[in-house]
Amino acid sequence: MDVRMWREAGKLAASGDFEGWQAIERELRSKGFPRAKLLLDNDRIRNKFDNLCKSAQEKRADADRT
């Protein structure tokens, strides 16, 4: 189950639809991953997801400009 959650979290971050780890956590919990809060309770993981979200949003913004 945790592997599925990590995969889903990665997809959410890469989508560009989320601001950061907190939004991803809420989305995961709404999709039936109750352990999301526990598994995302780590600063390094949170920073990684924040950076992934930011990068995806920047890519989307660049694509929208062209």
Report the average pLDDT across residues: 94
- What is the beta-strand fraction? under 5%
Helix coverage percent of residues?
over 70%
Number of domains: 1
Spans where pLDDT lies below 50 across 5 or more residues: none
SS element count, helices: 4
What would you report as the Rg, rounded to the nearest angstrom?
Answer: 12 Å
Summarize the biggest pleated sheet. none
What is the straight-line distance between the termini? Answer: 39 Å
Query: Given the helix and strand composition, which structural class is it?
Result: mainly alpha
Give the beta-strand count.
0
Shape: elongated
What string gives the helices and strands in order?
HHHH
What would you say this structure looks like, in words?
- The protein is mainly alpha-helical and 66 residues long.
- It has 4 helices and no strands.
- It has helices at 2-15, 21-30, 36-39, 43-65.
Concise structural overview:
With 66 residues, the chain is mainly α.
What topology emerges from the helices and strands here?
Blueprint: H1 2-15, H2 21-30, H3 36-39, H4 43-65
Helix pairs in contact: 1-2, 1-4
Question: What tags apply to this protein structure?
Answer:
66 residues, mainly alpha, 4 helices, 77% helix, elongated
